[in-house]
Amino acid sequence: MSSISAIIITKNEELNIWECLNSLKWVDEIVVVDAGSTDKTIDIAKEFTKKIFIRQWDGYGAAKNFALEKCTSDWIFWIDADERATPELQNEIQKFINSNNQDYCALSMPRRANFLGKWINHCGWYPGRIIRIFRRSKGYFTDNKVHERLEVKGKIFRLKSDLLHYTDPTLEHYLNKLNKYTSLAAEDLVESKKKFSIIKMLVNPVWTFIRMYFIKLGFLDGVPGLILSFQSSYYVFTKYAKMWEQTNKTIKV
C-alpha cells in the first residue's frame, strides 16, 4: 500500500502549527523544516513528529526541496502552517492513494481562504484549485524566493473537497506579509533580468483591482472583498516599486 508524507515550512507559527499538524495525524510521516523560530513552534511540532529540521533560510523553493529529500513516502502532501486538511479531504486523498491508480502523478484540490474572518468565495480566490499532492519521484519545486511553483510530470487527478486556508486574520498580518513578499518578489524580478516598466507599475495594479473586484465578483464578498482587491492591487504596485528601487539602488547607506 502506498504511503504519504506531509511537508511544512515554518517560522514562528505557534498560533497555527498545532491545528495544521492535528489535521494531518492520518499521514504516514510529517517533515517540518523550520527557518529559526523563536516562539513555541518547534515545541508544538515535537508533539506530532521527530523529523524536524532547523535550516538557514534561503527561499521557499529551496526549503521545500530540502524537505522532499527527507521524505520516505511514495506520495507528498505539501501544506502551509495556516492551512487545514478537512476530514472530507482526508477521505478523498486516502481513497485515491489506496486505489493504487497508476494513471496520475498528482492531485489537485480547491482551496477556500478565510480573510479577515470571512470566507472569500469570489475575487478569483475560490475555488483557487492547486496541486498539493504528488508522487515523490514526479515533482520538484522551482527556486523562486516567493510564490515558488510545483513542477510535476504527468496527469493530474481533481479532488472535490476543500483545503482550508486561514490566510490573514487581521489587516496588520496581511500588511506584514505584503512587505516581506513584495521584497522577495522584487528580488526575483531583478535576478531574472527583467526590465522595469513604468507602464506595468501603473497599469497592472489597476487591472488587478478591476479583475478581482468586478470581473471575479469580489464585491459579493462585502467589505473584505473590497479590501482584498485593493490590497492585492497595492501588492502589485509595491512589487514593481521595490524592483525599481533595487535596480536603481536609490537607497544608500
Describe this entry's structure for a reader:
The protein has 253 residues and is α/β, with parallel strands linked by helices. 39% of the residues lie in helices and 23% in strands. The chain is built from 7 helices and 13 strands. It has helices spanning 17-22, 41-45, 60-69, 87-98, 171-191, 198-215, 222-248, and strands at residues 4-10, 29-34, 52-54, 75-78, 83-85, 104-109, 111-115, 118-120, 130-135, 139-141, 150-152, 155-158, 163-168. The strands form 3 sheets. It has a 7-stranded mixed beta sheet with strand order 3-2-1-4-9-6-12. Strand 10 (139-141) and strand 11 (150-152) form a beta hairpin. Helix 5 (171-191) packs parallel to helix 7 (222-248) and helix 6 (198-215) packs antiparallel against helix 7 (222-248). The N and C termini lie far apart (59 Å). The mean pLDDT is 95.
Index terms:
alpha/beta; 253 residues; single chain
Which stretches are poorly predicted, pLDDT < 50 over at least 5 residues?
Answer: none
The string of secondary-structure elements, in order, is: EHEHEHEEHEEEEEEEEHHH
Briefly note the structural class of the backbone. alpha/beta
Q: How many β-strand stretches?
A: 13
In the sheet with the most strands, the strands line up as 3-2-1-4-9-6-12
Rg estimate, integer Å: 19 Å
Mean pLDDT: 95
* Biggest sheet overview: 7 strands, mixed
Counted by DSSP, the helix tally is 7
Shape: globular
- The portion of residues assigned to helices is 25-40%
Strand content: 15-25%
End-to-end gap: 59 Å
